[in-house]
Amino acid sequence: MDFELLSGPTGVETIARGRAVRELARLRRAHGRGDWRKMKGLARIRLRNGQTRLAELHWYEAHGIGRKEMKRKRYLD
Q1: What are phi and psi of 18, to 5 degrees?
Q2: Which terminus of the chain is more solvent-facing, meaning fewer CB atoms within 10 Å of its CB: N or C?
Q3: Could you tell me which residues are beta bridge partners of residue 45?
Q4: CA separation, residue 55 to residues 5, 29, 33 (Å)
Q5: 3-class secondary structure for 46-77?
């Protein structure tokens, strides 16, 4: 990640679950078997240059494994 989370994601939605997750095989190889979901939400982040922004984030998560591969999709402010 090229940013630091300042607040937990809000307005969290599931984009895909189970076999609908395109990266399912890679996620299982890298992080283990689980009920993988692709999620999105909004959060306040701090960039490397110190700037604070509101951004839409996407990530993968599975029960017992947690959030993995969080990425910033776009700024909202």
Answers
A1: 65, -130
A2: C
A3: 5, 53
A4: 10, 29, 29
A5: EECCCCEEEEEEEEEEECCCEEEEEEEEEECC
DSSP secondary structure of 1-47: --EEESS--EEEEEEEEGGG-TTHHHHHHHH-SS--EEEEEEEEEEE
Phi, psi of 65 (to 5 degrees): -110, -40
Listed residue (13, 14, 72, 67) closest to 44, CA to CA? 72
pTM (predicted TM-score): 0.90
pLDDT in tens, 24-61: 999 999 999 999 999 999 999 999 999 999 999 999 99
Phi and psi torsions of 36, nearest 5°? -75, 140
CA–CA gap between residue 14 and residue 45 (Å, rounded): 20
